[in-house]
Amino acid sequence: MRVTALAGGVGGAKLADGLYRSPMINDLAVIVNIGDDFEHFGLTICPDLDTVCYTLAGIANPDTGWGQSEDTYAVIKTLERLGGPSWFKLGDKDIATHMERTRLLRARNRLSTVTAMLSRKWGIECCVLPASDDPVPTIVSTVEMGSLAFQEYFVKYQYQPQVVEFIFKNASKAQPAPGVLEAIEASDLIIFCPSNPWVSLDPILAIPGIREAVSSKRVIAISPIIGGKTVKGPAAKMFKELGIYPSALAVADHYRSLLEGILIDHADDALAGAIDRMGIKPLVTDTFMRHIPDRIRLAEEAIHFAKRNEQ
Ligand code: FO1
Predict the structure, then answer these.
(1) d(C-alpha 179, C-alpha 70), whole Å
(2) Is 70 exceeded by the pLDDT of residue 145?
(3) CA–CA separation, 250 vs 283, rounded Å?
């Protein structure tokens, strides 16, 4: 089966890993959010591309989900002693990724080309694509601090400021990266990974042409919200601050016109009827991914769900 997954953040990377490791899928493309990307110390840092690639390569930090496992922090600690900004904890091995990506970009390679080059070095055998090769930084408009660059909002201020809206800067001028629309068109199924709808999947869908391409395909989502909360990150807090009660139902409604089905957790069993009445088929299951077998199980449940719906 040919699958294209849209992913961002740690939860999205884990489900993408389950799809990647499943023998049911012989052709996987992962389209990754670039809204978190930023320049730091002159380095181009792409957190969601790195989180997906490190996770697929089996070298992600198992505790945080981002950065590399068994990394050291000599550089950032030394930098702190020099009085430099150390709020964004870069590991020593992780810095090598940012240095090589920046070097390749400066040599006028596209981000998608650089991602393919790095993926090969990490032994990744599926296609990992940035949503666009053009920078489309997410700006978070907040009550207390006005407009914040994404990493300032997410890391420096630990996503405490109250959100007003999200701006995907220059999205209207951006192009899907080469291969993105082709991957979507060629797929039997599109999977919306359990990522933050506001700042991981919406920035992908905001790139001109991507939402349209997805809208003519079969789409199954996995809710990132379980029992009104997220496993990690600010998605539930964002829903609340935007005046929407956080729930799997709110996630289904967020993507309403695009979804054929959605996997929700047992904790949200009571929402299945309302989701079904929206015209979206619910599958109630265990959506926690505690370890790699869980990632594969959940990924395969989504595939089986789609196959059952096919008839
Ligand atoms: N997230 C944090 O909460 N604190 C950090 O210090 C931090 C450092 C970091 C370094 C490299 C990287 O690729 C990601 C990093 N992240 C950190 C996560 C980053 O903020 C991502 O954007 C989030 O995971 C949301 O996708």
Answers:
(1) 33
(2) yes
(3) 16
User: Rounded CA gap, 139 and 146, in Å?
Assistant: 10
Closest CA to 194 of 299, 51, 67: 299
CATH topology of domain 2-310: Rossmann fold (3.40.50)
Element housing 251 (H / E): helix 248-254
pTM above 0.85, yes or no: yes
Share of the chain above pLDDT 70, in %: 100
Distance CA 187, CA 246 (A): 30
Strands in 100-237 per DSSP E: 127-130, 138-142, 146-149, 163-168, 189-192, 219-222, 225-226, 229-230
Pairing of strands 27-32, 127-130: parallel
Report the amino acid identity of residue 294.
Answer: D
Residue 89 confidence class, pLDDT cut points 50, 70, 90 = very high
Cα separation, 221 vs 302, whole angstroms: 8
* CA-closest residue to ligand 1 atom 2: 155
Which residue's alpha carbon is at the smallest distance from atom 16 of ligand 1? 66
Give 255-281 pLDDT, tens digit per residue.
Answer: 989 999 999 999 999 999 999 999 999
pLDDT at position 311 is 66
* Burial of 270 per CB tally in 10 Å (0-12, 13-18, 19+): exposed
Overall average pLDDT of the 51-65 stretch: 97
What is the distance in A from the centroid of ligand 1 to the CA of 249?
28
Between CA 109 and CA 115, with CA 155 as vertex, the angle to 5 degrees is 20
CA of 208 to the centre of ligand 1 (A): 27
Neighbours of 24 (CB within 10 A): 14
Place of tokens 């096919």: 310
